[in-house]
Every structure is written in C-alpha cells, then in structure tokens.
Design brief:
Helix content is 23%, strand content 37%. By secondary structure, it is of the alpha+beta class. A hairpin with a 4-residue loop joins strand 13 and strand 14.
C-alpha cells in the first residue's frame, strides 16, 4: 500500500563570493572529486551532526547535463522507538558506526548552473549544503581563504497574474507597533486587532479547510495582493496557496523564490527511492525550465 508525499523544492544558483563581488561558480569539479572518495571520507561534521554526499548520478537529457545528488544527514541522537502492533515499543539502539540517515535530494543542471533543492526540515538544510561545498572547495584549494561558495535563490518576478484556484492565504506580520496602513486598506482591521494587544508580530490564515472543491474569491485575493504590495513594510510573508487539476503550489509576494511542489507515491515501510526522486525532479524541472531561463535573463549583472 502506498501513500502520497508532497515535497517542496526551491531553485538556486551557485556563486563564488568575495570582497570584489560575486560570479557564477561551477560545482562540477567539487562533485567529481567527492565522487572519487570512499563513503567514509565524504563525511563532514558541522556542529554536532555529520553529513555526506552519498550518491552522485549523472544524466544527459535534451542537450543538458545533470547531476542528481543525494545528501545524507547521519544522526545518532534523539532516536525513535521501534513499535509493534502486538507488543510494547522498544528503544531503537545503534551500534558503533551506525546512524539514522535522512536524505535530501538535489538536481544540479550543470549546463545552466541551476540547482533544484529539496526542502526537508529534518535533513540537511541550505546552510549545511553551503558549508559542505565550501569545506571541499577549500580542501581542494579551488577557492582562496577570502572566497566562499554560496547558493543564492532564484527569485520569480511574476505575481498572481496567471494564478487561480486559491485555497489558502498565510500572512505573517512584523514590526507591528510601527505599522500603519491607509483607512481603505483590507489590512487595517487586522493590524488594528494586533495593536489592541500591543503585539510585535502576528499571523493569520484564510482558507477553505478540508473542503477540497471549494476555492477562495479570486477577485478579493487579487485585491488583497495589491494591498500587500502597497504595505510591504508591515508584512514578513504573504503566501497565496493555489490548486488546479494539474498543479499545487503557492506564491509568496514578499519573498517569491522560485519553487515547486511534487507529489510522490511511496510504498509504506519504504523511503523515496533514488530513481523515483530523480525522474520526478527531472520531469518537473523541464516543465519549469522556460520560466527559470526567463528569470535568469532578468537577473542583474553581478
């Protein structure tokens, strides 16, 4: 029996950062050198946790070279229990050299220097991916001590122009004591409510709940988005979630990093397989590639 898991991915570009500025940086030499190392030698420790680039799969499709990377967080703390239907749960214990592994998948478009990175709050976050690439870049002497490898997000310049089927709006407010909006703003009553309690921050959710066929009023959503764009000083995040027959996603009007959500069918008592992750990510990447390339042409020169 399988279940559906929705996984979010965000898009980044690799840069070499220094005091003189930033420039596009290819990760290919780092990846090739890591690929030559035995698994144990790939491990890097940052803080209390260990991480490694465990799998590197190469593919050439539609004149583009790809590397599918599977990072692994190696965890030996906060272990769960092993539960049985007809017996009591027992603590899960590990032997020396054993860890619980949490995977994180990355698709690297080598030709265009774009990364499609899985978001996994329990796994290896973006900061640790940066640290991992930097550790290898300095160890291999590919960069100087004053330089660093940074993954910068690709921002989308599109708003809600072509979006319909709104299911939820999540607004997060910041600096509320100094937030003042016009009398005719849809946000005024909300911010006044927070002011009543002298709150410094707050959030509201507007949605359709579990009524999967219901949608929010599109005209009101667009009017609200205009309100938000005119009062950005008071808002930390403004996520408009939407769902159509073919696609589920959201647009954040404040930090609109290009992203995707992919639904994977996973057999129970198993994990997302390498091949399923790779094919799902490749298929979605090619669907979004025209939008990605369009945004890259709009990027200012660094």
């Amino acid at each position: 029996m399988s279940y559906t898991k929705r996984i979010k991915f965000m898009y980044y570009r690799p840069f070499l950062s220094s005091d003189s500025g930033d420039m596009i940086f290819s990760l290919l030499e780092i990846i090739a050198n890591v690929d030559k190392q035995p698994l144990k030698s790939r491990i890097k420790q940052f803080g209390d946790n260990k991480y490694r680039l465990e799998n590197i799969e190469r593919e050439h499709r539609n004149n583009i070279d790809f590397c599918h990377l599977r990072f692994m967080k190696l965890d030996d703390a906060n272990l769960p229990n092993l539960a049985y239907e007809d017996d009591r749960s027992v603590p899960l214990t590990l032997c020396d050299g054993q860890y619980l592994g949490t995977a994180l998948h990355v698709l690297y478009d080598v030709t265009n220097d774009v990364l499609m990175v899985q978001q996994n709050r329990n796994g290896m976050g973006l900061a640790k991916i940066n640290e991992y690439f930097n550790a290898w870049a300095h160890e291999l002497e590919l960069v100087s001590d004053s330089q660093s490898v940074e993954l910068y997000p690709i921002y989308s310049t599109s708003g809600l122009e072509n979006v319909n089927g709104y299911t939820k709006v999540l607004l997060k407010f910041a600096n509320l004591l100094d937030a003042h909006v016009p009398d005719n703003s849809r946000l005024r009553d909300v911010i006044s409510y927070f002011h009543r309690y002298e709150a410094l921050s707050g959030s509201i959710i507007i949605g359709v709940g579990h009524h999967t066929s219901q949608r929010l009023n599109s005209e009101e959503m667009r009017a609200l988005s205009q309100d938000i764009s005119e009062n950005r000083h008071a808002i930390k995040s403004a996520q408009f979630h939407y769902k159509t027959e073919d696609y589920t996603g959201f647009v954040d009007l404040i930090e609109n990093v290009m992203h995707d959500v992919i639904q994977f069918e996973i057999e129970r008592r198993t994990v997302l397989s390498l091949i399923n992750a790779q094919q799902g990510m490749l298929n979605r990447y090619f669907e979004r590639l025209p939008d990605i390339l369009k945004e890259l042409h709009l990027l200012p020169k660094r």
